[in-house]
Design goal:
This protein is 30% helix and 32% strand. By secondary structure, it is of the alpha+beta class.
Length: 186
């Protein structure tokens, strides 16, 4: 546990004092908890496209990141791409990894549990029969994702299992979510 000069408590790199203040503010003004995250995408060629994340809505206001985040997506050569970026299904695994890890660190800190290190591995199975529309009985997305955590610190295995499942990306993947698609032909 670390303390800053203003007697703020930091645990696992998380300012627990500010976390408690955020929770209190949301309890007092529930609409502060409503966020909208956004991404824009521009196709380049083949499997290569570029996503940009720069603005979001949170705490009842429009906000901007310090700088736009630009992510190149492509396919490896074996999938007819130029390998100029991770492929989109790898981005899903990376998003899941970041979210589960952050969720674990934040919730452990909030519970007063110290963590020295977190490592994790992600692997998922996709059958191209679904994507290529060769078999209508095979889905095009992941059939299963396997996650393995190695955690050094206070939380026991049951607590770690509980905390990582609180991840918003875990929840999004584990439960159906509505996706509304609007198309404008130009």
């Amino acid at each position: 546990m670390n303390t800053t000069q203003t007697n703020e408590i930091t645990r696992n790199g998380v300012n627990v004092t500010k976390l408690a203040g955020t929770i209190l503010a949301i309890e007092q003004q529930p609409e502060l908890a409503q966020f909208k995250f956004r991404a824009k995408n521009q196709w380049d060629t083949g499997g290569h496209n570029v996503a940009t994340v720069d603005t979001f809505h949170g705490t009842c206001q429009e906000m901007e990141h310090k700088k736009p985040f630009v992510m190149h997506a492509d396919e490896p050569a074996v999938l007819l791409g130029e390998d100029n970026g991770a492929n989109p299904v790898e981005f899903v695994l990376a998003g899941l990894s970041g979210c589960m890890t952050t969720t674990l660190a934040y919730h452990a800190a909030g519970r007063g549990l110290d963590i020295e290190s977190i490592e994790s591995q992600y692997e998922g199975d996709i059958d191209l029969h679904g994507l290529l529309d060769l078999d209508p009985n095979i889905r095009s997305g992941y059939r299963e994702i396997r996650v393995k955590f190695k955690v050094k610190g206070d939380p026991d295995e049951q607590t770690i299992q509980e905390l990582v499942r609180m991840s918003p990306i875990y929840d999004t993947l584990a439960n159906p979510v509505k996706i509304k698609i609007e198309v404008e032909k130009i």
